[in-house]
Amino acid sequence: MNIQWIATMKTSLLLILTAALGLGNGPACAFEGSIKATLVRGGQTETILYTIGTNDLLLERGETDLPYPRNIFNLQTGELTLLFPNNRSFVRLKTADPISTPPMPGVPPPPGELPPGVGPQAPVVTAPHVPRLPVRPNLPALPSGIGPQAGATPGTLAGAPRMAGMPSMGAMPIMPMSAMDGLDLRATGEKTNLLGYPCQRYELTQRDEVMEIWATDQLVPFQPYLQSQPLSLAPRMIVEQWGDLLKARKLFPLLATLKTVNGAERLRYQVEIITPEKIEDPGEKIFQPPAGYREVKPLPF
Hints:
Elements: H1 3-21, E1 33-41, E2 44-52, E3 56-61, E4 70-74, E5 79-84, E6 89-94, E7 186-194, E8 197-206, E9 209-216, H2 238-248, E10 252-260, E11 265-276, E12 294-295
Parallel strand pairs: 6-12
Antiparallel strand pairs: 1-2, 1-11, 2-3, 3-4, 4-5, 5-6, 7-8, 8-9, 9-10, 10-11
């Protein structure tokens, strides 16, 4: 047998295995190309276009009726750039850093935040002296049902029935902001193939709503499209959280539906086309703000 022929066959087999495993080109799940998806909610249909390069992701609206913002997401650093064509400006957001809320005017800083003598200090306010009122003499008890009764809790009337299960106003608990948190992206174990990509079924449940998501780990981590800078005290409902939960798991949805328990569909996200291709950007015009755009600072909330 020809030795040269054997060497050629070994080289060919090595190249085939390298291509199959994705060796030499980064992780096997690395994706580069474009994706077209539609989002239907409230009777309105939005077309979202993804352009995915080696290190960056561009999100655009397919509609041209308005100057919709464009999102540029850096896959390495997590930095998000919002481009606003209406006034030719852009803002950079470091999504890994929480956006803190500035203190209210006149509210002193938390203890220990500033040492004494450094920076503006909160003025020391002392309560004015209030003279002690004379003690009222004991009054005779009033007939039942007339006036305040002895032993009655301030703010209540003696003998007035309390509604079952209702605490007094003084003991009314305050609902914390995190009461709506705790959404869990639960894998059901069901699997299928959509548009040539293996997907697994996930569920999100909150109150009377259930979201079914078919997602894959063979694309890029999902980045929700943003119209504007997100607020630090954003709502905690499913429609505001499902995209971030997928991104944290490095998943990309191919089909997602949000329904109420009675079957009414509130939201549908569906990928229509996936086109793997090399994204060429020699002039850095795709993933950078256009020339002439001015940078503005993020909003302080």
